[in-house]
Amino acid sequence: MDTAKATLNDHRQSPRKVRLMAGLVRGKSVADAMALLSFAGKQSAAPVKKLIASAVANAKNLGMDESNLIVKEIQVNGGAILYRRLPMSRGRAFTKRKRTSHIDVILGVKPEKVSKKADKASKTALKKVVAKK
Fold first, then answer.
1. Which of 15, 22, 71, 130 could potentially form a cystine with 101 if both were Cys, beta carbons 3.0 to 4.6 Å apart?
2. Mean per-residue pLDDT for 52-74?
3. Contact (Cβ atoms closer than 8 angstroms) between residue 22 and residue 74
């Protein structure tokens, strides 16, 4: 298995604000993502960092190497909305929507880089095989 997953449901912050931090770490290595979130000045950075740490722990349980992990996929979706009434003048009541977020993180193994020499050698070998036919 080459992926590890962690989820956080009903986080009491709007998805729009959490998506800023999700976009910041998407595609980064786990070490880089944790460093970025440590110094990000947003309230949503802490729960996202904690969720990535949970996914790393899940990856360790699956026997994956921690040094090769990247944030393969991170999604932030809307959760349940809490409706609250705010009293206004003349007996009116305005609705305050307190939004929640569902956050899903999938960690994957970093793809191996193929050196240019090896890639070029395999292409020339393929050309020779095609040319013989």
1. 15
2. 92
3. yes
Strand order in the sheet with 3-11: 3-11, 101-109, 69-78
CB of 107 closer than 8 Å to CB of 56 = yes
- As given in the structure block, the two tokens for residue 132 are 């013989």
CB-based contact 4:59 (threshold 8 Å)? yes
The model's pTM is 0.80
> What distance in Å separates the CA atoms of residue 127 and residue 35, rounded to the nearest whole number?
45
- The average pLDDT across 48-67 equals 93
Q: How much is the pLDDT for 110? A: 84
Sign (positive or negative) of CA dihedral 63, 22, 48, 11: negative
Alpha carbons 31 and 65: distance in angstroms, whole number: 13
31 and 117 Cβ atoms separated by less than 8 Å: no
